[in-house]
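Q: what does this look like with FE2/S2 (inorganic) cluster bound?
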Amino acid sequence: MVKKKNGWRSVQWFGREDIYGFIYRSWVKNRGVPQDQFDGRPVIGICNTWSELTPCNTHFRVLADHVRHGILEAGGFPLEFPVMSLGETLLRPTAMLYRNLASMDVEESIRGNPLDGVVLLAGCDKTTPATLMGAASVDLPTLLVSGGPMLSGKYRGGDIGSGTNVWSMSEDLRAGKIGLEEFHEAESCMHRSHGHCMVMGTASTMAAMVEALGVGLPGNAAYPAVDARRNVLARMAGRRIVDMVKEKLSLSRILTKAAFENAIRANAAIGGSTNAVIHLIALARRIGVELGLDDWDRCGEGVHTLLNLMPSGKYLMEDFCYAGGLPAVLRELGENNLLHRDALTVNGKTIWENNQDAPCWNRDVIHSFKAPLKENTGIKVLRGNLSPSGAIIKPSAATPKLLRHKGRAVVFESIEDFHKRIDDPQLDIDESCVMVLKNCGPKGYPGMAEVGNMPLPPKLLKKGISDMVRVSDARMSGTAYGTVVLHVSPEAAAGGVLALVQNGDQIELDVPQRKLELLVSDAILAQRRTQWVEPKAPLERGYWKLYFDHVLQAHEGADLDFLVGKSGAFVPRDNH
Ligand code: FES
């Protein structure tokens, strides 16, 4: 018998005793679902970003089965569904172009279907923000299970990290220090198990953000993808989401301003990816929390990098797991008054209840707050005439002596211009110059590609130069490093001052003063602006056109303007 009065939204589909009830139930029964599954129990969606085009998420069918077991054990009714997946390594021109599209898929798939709660399965970089953003705009009880990092890369007796060593090895190849055979061998040794990148890149960062925000269970960030505890976590998530539905513990009760501030501080403590800045701002704006760049600077101030993980340090995610994982970091933050201890999490406990007794088993991997890896390394927000709406830098990945620097601009008008000229021995550049890359922002690329950490010219690499100041409207892979100023806003393609920089201009970077200045007079800039031509949409139809016409700037999270906010879970009409 259907219990109609329990208040779950799925009863509006499966609890009906009319033609609609027949339609809603009968087709679901076609795979062997018995009548008693429609008795009013919570219906839980398992939102799966599995795809062979997303190598980091290829174990998600197994993970989904563990979630399914948990849901069944708790008396829920699981319904798994696919959504658009975003693979960082294959998708062109950049997975970020499609983050908002995938979020629309997630949002409408959840809202339009008879679901009372959702477990999101995400791993590769953009799959986490995309699923969370979509779910936030519906605001059902929601829990995210991350896919977990790969095992450590092992190459010729040492560790190699996803991405991070790709950058260093490709520089070595370009500088003639290694050959192609060694390069190919390293490819096979770097990614040797299921899971996402195993440095503190964007995927690991976002999995940590999930745990710090309280939308994932304790331990979510670090268990390797192939560790049995990852499957246990998925199963426990399946059990827990059923109770979350009964407790009406919706996403907006978890994703509060306090939760975001906890996540920002956790990001500083783990040496997390700059991409988290954009994703968390976009997510906050979906759920109705005011969060901006200044919150990142304010909350990150005084937070030290505790994690000795690539790209800021030397270890990998597997080491992080064995050392205690994110709970050990959150405990350090809490003990140093850098955590809103009463922020609620998906398991119904506060973040402090979850983490106050967390052990640390290796202080070389997870440093204490009193003896950090690097001091005061929260993401810094830079303003000035070159970035009136803000730009960011990750000091933990930068060269300290370059954080105050004035140099001559060497300008690349596009990524193609950069590739054409960077290897030219005649390029007029030395290590004191500031490399400037334009037209790689949200509209310009389009999709704000991870190209801000421009490789250095070979002639300087051969001299042993390993870092220079770089400025762009692009993003940077979370696996990358260097003194790289990113997310300059407004971007060049939106008419930002970045568009007006010319070769030979002086640029001043002063991170302690939070300054990024183009030392060119307003009068000259006004003159240059008369010559600037606004770019056209790269495609005149389809999603690219929609994206180009509606994408917001980096400091606003690069969401589409009409997606900001939420519409809730209500659907007014039946479908026949
Ligand atoms: Fe998927 Fe790095 S490529 S997480």
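The pocket of FE2/S2 (inorganic) cluster is lined by residues 56, 88-89, 124-125, 162, 196-197, 201, 203 (CB under 6 Å). The longest helix spans residues 228-246.
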